[in-house]
Amino acid sequence: MKRFLIVIVGVIFLAVSVFMFYKNKKLTEKCTEETVATVVDMKQEFSGDGDSSSYLYYPIIEYLANEENVRVTMDKGSNVPAYEIDDTITILYNPSKVKEFIVKGDMSLNIFSIVFLGIGALLCGYGTYTLIKKD
C-alpha cells in the first residue's frame, strides 16, 4: 500500500506542475505590452515563527500603461531586497488588466513548476519501480 501511495503522491506533484506551467503560459501570452517600471518604494513584511524570523521585502513599482499611471506591489518578496528604490525594470503587462504583469526575462516564473515536475517524476519512477520489482 505504501508503494502505491508513493505513485499517487508523485502523480499529484506532476499534476500541480502541469497546472503551474499552464497558468504561467497563459500569463505570458496575455502580457504583451512592454514598458519600463520604476521601483518607488519597498513593502516590508515580518515573516517567521519565534526561532527564525526575518523580514520580506516586496518592491512597489510604478509604470505607465494605457496612458495611466499604475502602482503595484510585486508578489515576490525576498529577505534581501531584489531591487533598490529608483531601480528600473522592464516589464510586460496585460493591456486588458494593467496590474497583471511579468518581469521581462524573469526565469523564476517556472522554477516551482520544474521543481514539482522533478519531484513528481522521481516519486512516480521510484514508486513504479517498487511496485513491479519482485520481493
What is the topological layout?
Blueprint: H1 2-30, E1 33-48, E2 53-65, E3 68-73, E4 88-93, E5 101-103, H2 111-132
Antiparallel strand pairs: 1-2, 1-4, 2-3, 4-5
Radius of gyration: 20 Å
Helix content: 25-40%
General shape: elongated
Per DSSP, what share of the residues sits in E-state strands of 2 or more residues? 25-35%
How many separate domains make up the residues?
Answer: 2
Strand order of the largest sheet: 3-2-1-4-5
What about the largest sheet? 5 strands, antiparallel
State the end-to-end distance.
14 Å
- Count helical runs: 2
Low-confidence stretches: none
Keywords:
38% helix, 135 residues, five-stranded antiparallel sheet, 2 helices, elongated, 2 domains, alpha+beta
Q: What do you see in this structure?
A:
With 135 residues, the protein is of the alpha+beta class. It is elongated. Strand 1 (33-48) and strand 2 (53-65) form a beta hairpin. It is built from 2 helices and 5 strands; from the N terminus they run αβββββα. It folds into 2 domains: 1-31 and 105-135; 33-99. The chain has helices spanning 2-30, 111-132; strands at residues 33-48, 53-65, 68-73, 88-93, 101-103. Helices cover 38% and strands 33% of the residues. The model has no long low-confidence stretch (mean pLDDT 91).
Short summary:
The chain is an alpha+beta fold and 135 residues long. 38% of the residues lie in helices and 33% in strands. It has helices at residues 2-30, 111-132, and strands at residues 33-48, 53-65, 68-73, 88-93, 101-103.
